């Protein structure tokens, strides 16, 4: 009786196993992730637009007085005719940046071990950043402006009460600002540690983002305690510069990797 030939199982040498492992660890799109590159490319472009939008809105935002001097800033804000539009622009800019960071977190989460877990944490806190900032912009761009307008048009008898209402809204904004900064710092720290422990992006970028994240957390803590004070600004100003380097650097690298892989 003739025997049906059987196919021998494929051999797996250490070299082929190493190649398979490297292939599985890349962040190229797979059948389970067909939109990986388009998502990263779009998110990187949106993120860079968000950075540019934030720079423009910061220039348009009135800030000629000490932000903790409520009387001075209320008078300045009362004369601003584009106040709400500026804050809508700030909201859009931050939302675009967060979209880019969440796409980065999604890519980083596909790594193994601690680096992947930190990517997931960064994605969760990134969503919280957008949520808290949305509330802050609603308070600052709408509620505060309405309270200030009510104060400026109040009668002499009602003026003191109207000012206290506006001041309460202002402190609500300051509290939201402090927690937004702390959340933003936590997100940066998680993503930066994922980059440092992983293999997707240069480690120097992780160090820059990590320093920015720690400074943002410290600055947010000071903001929550002292408002928009000089002490908070002393920490947050260099933190913002490091943040800009981190986000622009990662978005450019995301775009290049999506175009070449």
How confident is the prediction overall: mean pLDDT?
Answer: 85
Rg over alpha carbons = 24 Å
Task: Give the beta-strand count.
Answer: 0
| Shape type | elongated
The helix-and-strand class reads mainly alpha
Residue windows where pLDDT falls under 50 for at least 5 positions: 1-35
Largest sheet report: none
**Between the first and last Cα atoms, what is the distance in angstroms?**
54 Å
Helix content range: over 70%
In percent, how much strand structure appears in the residues? Answer: under 5%
Helix/strand order: HHHHHHHH
List the total number of helices: 8
What is the element layout, followed by pairings?
Elements: H1 14-25, H2 36-60, H3 70-78, H4 83-108, H5 113-152, H6 159-197, H7 203-226, H8 230-260
